[in-house]
Amino acid sequence: MASGSDNSVSSQLAGSDLDNLYGSIDKYNVHGLNLTVPEDAQAVIKPWDERDDTSSSAQSNVDDQVIIHVPFAQNVRVKSVLLKLGRGETTPRRLRIYANHSNIVDFAEAEEFTPQLNINLLEGEVGVMEYPMRSAAFANIHSLSLFFSDAVGGESLQIYYIGFRGDSRSQRRDASQKLEIPAANAADASLTDRVREKTGGQQTTAR
């Protein structure tokens, strides 16, 4: 879990890529909604050693909402999401994560479905921030839709880097293989987490 005295996870992961799931992401099928340049959804999926590169980013188009769909080429357990976000008025303050949809969750669906995780993002951070995810809800994942919104300035938002920590749960599959999508679990409840808060008794802390 991110420490209050450490503004990034660099000290924990510098020089180490052991838990990074970059190699499990089906990068060429990553795509987004409401981006100024649609291909930039793939540009923010970077290897760990390029996490601080700000030469490429994804920026919202008509407002301060962006959805980025990240499929995996094999089933994974996701322990945390790693983010480097725009600063100042382009900083998104909210992230909703939807798990195991065969295609991107669009904006209308995002209002109908309950996200597996609802995070209040920290503002004013320059480095990569790590947000832990509930182990039970993200134990067998083949795709995630990330819905960023609520930019500080209210007009546009920017994302520089998206990554994940976790481990592989199954043998590698063909990225073109169609998946059977399980029915949504009504028991999944909305959860708002700040990095420094614990939700009493309900959340399993990723290790």
TrEMBL record:
Pfam families: PITH. Residues 185-207 are annotated as: Disordered. GO terms for cellular component: cytoplasm; nucleus. Residues 10-184 form the PITH domain. SUPFAM superfamilies: Galactose-binding domain-like. InterPro entries: Galactose-bd-like_sf, PITH1-like, PITH_dom, PITH_dom_sf. Belongs to the PITHD1 family. PANTHER family: AD039 HT014 THIOREDOXIN FAMILY TRP26, PITH DOMAIN-CONTAINING PROTEIN 1. This is DUF1000-domain-containing protein. It comes from Obba rivulosa.
